[in-house]
Amino acid sequence: MNSTLQSLYFLAIRECLTAFRNRHEALSPLIFFSLVCVLFPLGVGASADLLRTIAPGIIWVAALLAILMSLGTLFRHEYEQGTLELMVLSEHPLIVLVVIKLVAYWLITALPLIVVAPFMAYGLGLTADAQGVLLLTLLLGTPVLILVGAIASTLTLVIPQNGMLLALLVLPLYVPVLIFATSAVNTVMMGGSAAGALYILAALCVLSVTLSPLAIVAALKIGVSQ
User: What's the number of domains the chain is made of?
Assistant: First the structure.
């Protein structure tokens, strides 16, 4: 048991060190997200009412695309270096290794976006209540984006330059998250309750956390066997 926990600990440390060595890749989603949120007002004008109205959509689309642009590299390095086969053949449960990988990916990719998002929302004129709901939607929605995208990423792992195919596969699946997340923020801005949309996002998050790792493990085994 101690050796298993030690191995999992070293795997988590390895993910952090890999992210540090490839920090240009790790920072790319954050830079993209920030640039979209900062530059978008220059294209639509400086009207405070207009920016406040479209702010939830701007922030969520920017976050969605920022996560999507990095999904292709989720298991790419392990696949190219041959360590993915070692993960599949390891004595440790593959699903545990996958969960550690996904948690590390969320911490490295999505968490910085969530930290920066309130500042972007404030700059776009969102009220404090709307910023709080926006933060909650990002906390519930980004795991869904990553988990659903990870399934498609592993299914297309054997295909070089799979970015376009990956986008075509996952973008339709991202639409419900985008709709309910922006709807929750817009409802609060109009003085209503966002509970309904948040409950649906929470249900999607629980469903993704429960089922997606199983699908990712199956896809990885298929990819390694080819």
Answer: 1
Task: Give every CB contact of residue 109 below 8 A, 6+ residues apart in sequence.
Answer: 26, 29, 66, 67, 70, 146
Q: Tokens for 115, please give them.
A: 């930290």
Q: How far apart are the first and last CA of the chain?
A: 32
Distance of CA 102 to the CA centre of its chain: 10
Does residue 114 contact residue 142 with C-beta atoms inside 8 Å?
yes
Q: How far apart are CA 85 and CA 115, in angstroms?
A: 35
Residue 158: domain span:
2-225
Q: What is the pTM of this model?
A: 0.87
CA atoms within 13 A on the CB side of 160: 1
Among 168, 155, 165, smallest CA distance to 226 is for 155
For each of the chain's 226 residues, which pLDDT tens digit applies? Answer: 455 566 666 666 766 666 666 666 668 888 999 999 988 888 877 777 888 888 999 999 999 999 988 887 777 777 776 677 777 776 777 888 888 888 888 888 899 999 999 999 998 888 889 999 999 999 999 999 999 998 888 888 777 776 778 888 888 999 999 999 999 999 999 888 889 999 999 999 999 999 999 988 888 877 666 6
